[in-house]
Amino acid sequence: GQQLNQSPQSMFIQEGEDVSMNCTSSSIFNTWLWYKQDPGEGPVLLIALYKAGELTSNGRLTAQFGITRKDSFLNISASIPSDVGIYFCAGRGFTSGTYKYIFGTGTRLKVLA
Amino acid sequence: KAGVTQTPRYLIKTRGQQVTLSCSPISGHRSVSWYQQTPGQGLQFLFEYFSETQRNKGNFPGRFSGRQFSNSRSEMNVSTLELGDSALYLCASSLASGRAPGELFFGEGSRLTVL
Q1: Cβ atoms of residues B32 and B52 within 8 Å
Q2: Cis peptide leading into A8, omega within 30 of 0?
């Protein structure tokens, strides 16, 4: 199935460090969403982006809708142990004849105290 | 307000059986979509319903089907279960459908194990 390229796949960082991850697509999207998923749970929506160039924050999280509309970035500042989990991006656009969301492959974040 | 509710949370079936999963969207949301999540394939789109009509369908065999009721609640059914159907099945609801952008809210999922 279709998936967006998301990098890095995983990262180990020290508590207090900043984290950056991104998603890229070959298609243009009109929406980018970022999620966090804990083991055995459903993804929780963190940030929604609707316009190219838009920069939105949610606490220590900041995400940007890329100018080309084909990428998006998520930054986490001053990471804490509870930031551990898998982060997913999702882009919505016209793909294979229909509008739908396509998800990234996920970034597994581990924070070392 | 209440989030997306999925039942059951966990279930175990054997090959050849069928299963029905249920999803109640956030109040006021008329769009419900279903996804299959596995470690190897990630989140894969199954289908989307809006106002009781299937709007989109992913690339899954006909054994996977769904429906939406007039109160926006949705069910998905998998017939003749195979081992590869073991996965976390996630339901998501949204205010928007079609071209309109919108936020997608997920339930906690139904973990299906096929033995």
Answers
A1: no
A2: yes
**Chosen from B94, B104, B105, B111 to mutate, greatest number of chain A CBs within 10 A:** B104
pLDDT at A1: 64
- Please indicate if any CB of chain A lies within 8 Å of the CB of B102: yes
Q: Do B106 and A42 touch (CB under 8 A)?
A: yes
Q: What is the pLDDT of residue A57?
A: 97
Return the residue matching tokens 């969301």.
A101
Q: Cβ contact (<8 Å) for B56 and A100?
A: yes
Tokens representing B85 are 């159907």
In the predicted structure, residue A3 carries a pLDDT above the cut 90: no
Which among A63, A61, A56 has a CA at the least distance from the CA of A85?
A: A61
B55 C-beta neighbours (distance < 10 Å), count: 18
Alpha-carbon gap, residue B84 to A106, rounded angstroms: 21
Structure-token pair, residue B67: 């429906």
Cβ atoms of residues A109 and A9 within 8 Å: no
Provide the residue type at A83 as one letter: D
Give me the pLDDT at residue A55, please. 97
The three-state secondary structure class of B83 is helix
pLDDT beneath 70, residues of chain B: 1, 98-99, 101
